[in-house]
Amino acid sequence: MSEKKNQFKVGLGVTGGIAAYKAIEVLRLLQKSDCDVRVAMTTHAAEFIQPLTFRALSGHYVLVDDYDSGNPDPIAHINFSQEIDLFLVVPATANTLAKFANGIADDFITSTYLASTAPVLVAPAMNTTMWNQPATARNIARLKSDGVRFVEPIAGELACKTVGTGKLEDVENIAAQAMAMLKGTGHSARDLENERVVITVGGTREAIDPVRFISNRSSGRMGFALARAAFERGAEVTVIAGSTSVDPPTGPRIINALSAAEMHEAVFEEISDATVFIGAAAVADYRPKSAAASKIKKKDRDEMSLELERTEDILAKVSSTRRNGVIVAGFAAETTNVVEYATEKLKKKNLDLVIANDITKDGAGFNSETNIASIIEKGGAAENLPKMSKLELAHVILDRIAKIRDAGK
Ligand code: CTP
Question: What is the C-alpha to C-alpha distance for residues 21 and 159, in angstroms, rounded to an integer?
């Protein structure tokens, strides 16, 4: 077998929670992205998953106890910690976070944390009550100020059958954030700390009557990814969310506004002190001219037509009424002549940036986890980006926004 050197070395710490099995998938995804992954586990994690599983998949000895006589390296926590480009902990228990925050080094993973100078990314998973404890919040705040990055847990049904925040983030998102840190695509920076970002997300619903509406296929994934990424980079983030089919990120403020008119109103309530506006919502361009007050009955009707009227273009209005220095970005979901139509939108709405995608492509579009986009800046040529996760794309978009901001200073 030919010896190929991987681009990145990742230390994957697995601590003792039911989500430990998901670390296997994270390992696989990182390997696919050209990472050499070495695994360390706590003894409790080894109760959930056999170290042998990780050994077989990673091709390396799995460190559980560095005093173990089978350990090939007597000072493993030093060697391991100094060889890695990223220390990633999936899942991170409340206990491990508490130890990291307080400098306790009583096992291999916590010793590695202290001995390492590599960036650290942790993906906590725990019961909602443990997540909400002031002690956990204190430890997390301390770790954040120490420079540790978090892939925040999401809301969902937990192993204990309760529903709440504490579920491990999707493994694709964890791997994407790890890759963004390894590639230095902004994620490790808190470069948006002084920004107030307003983002519209999801589709809108335009009422026909109290029961029916016109809507579209937007899931909200791209907009939520942007909100999450901006929040992690330190921005104050307000999301104006229409209809969505995925969980919102924890951190950003979420305001629900289902119709184009409600979204328009909510945006203009929030926009006055924003420094960045991103129109990621698929806002309906038309709505029924007058929604029926009571349910429309089909009795005696073979045909029916709806009279539609234009909705207000939120993005165009934000752009035309903005203060100096406010950055405005929009999206263009197209099926033909993608770059040409997107460039027209950029000019017509006087945007700083437009993100265009061909929604007919495999791996792009509304319900996909990934996106294939082109970014066009005012006065610039289109840059065609490769297929990447929506979170990675979000970071690339925010990198551009930060660059535009820095150029304007
Ligand atoms: N947008 C908006 N308000 C609207 C319509 C669109 O803010 N009422 C924003 C979207 O959030 C997106 C961009 O404008 O950022 C999309 O531009 P648009 O020209 O509306 O795209 P399409 O609806 O696809 O238009 P067309 O049918 O002309 O291609």
Answer: 13
Instruction: Compute the half-sphere exposure of residue 336: CA atoms within 13 Å on the CB side of its CA.
Output: 0
Element containing residue 88 per DSSP (H, E): strand 86-92
In a mutational test of the pocket of ligand 1, which residue from 259, 283, 328, 354 has the highest number of ligand atoms less than 8 Å from its CB? 283
CA distances from 289 to 146, 295, 308 (A): 55, 16, 5
Assess contact for 127 and 96: CB atoms under 8 A.
Answer: no
In this structure, the residue with its CA closest to atom 27 of ligand 1 is 285
Rounded-to-10 torsion of CA 297, 298, 304, 309? 20
CA-based end-to-end distance of the chain: 53
SS3 state at 50? coil
* Rg of the chain over all Cα atoms, to the nearest angstrom: 24
Please report, in tens digits, the pLDDT of each residue of the chain (409 residues total).
Answer: 445 678 899 999 999 999 999 999 999 999 999 999 999 999 999 999 999 999 999 999 999 987 777 777 777 777 888 889 999 999 999 999 999 999 999 999 999 999 988 899 999 999 999 999 999 999 998 898 788 889 989 888 888 777 888 999 999 989 988 998 887 654 456 789 999 999 999 999 999 999 999 999 999 999 999 999 999 888 999 999 999 999 898 889 999 999 999 999 999 999 999 999 999 999 999 999 999 999 999 987 899 999 999 999 999 999 999 999 999 999 999 999 999 999 999 999 999 999 999 888 887 877 777 888 999 999 888 988 877 778 888 988 999 999 999 998 7
Tell whether omega for the bond before 91 is within 30 degrees of 0, i.e. cis: yes
Rounded Cα gap, residues 6 and 38, in angstroms:
12
Helix (H, G, I), strand (E, B) or coil at 213: strand
Task: Write the CA distances from 406 to 31, 169, 232, 331, integer angstroms.
Answer: 35, 32, 19, 22
Say how many CA atoms lie within 13 Å of 25 toward its Cβ: 13
Residues with CB under 6 A from ligand 1: 200, 260, 279, 281, 283, 285, 311, 313-315, 330-333, 345
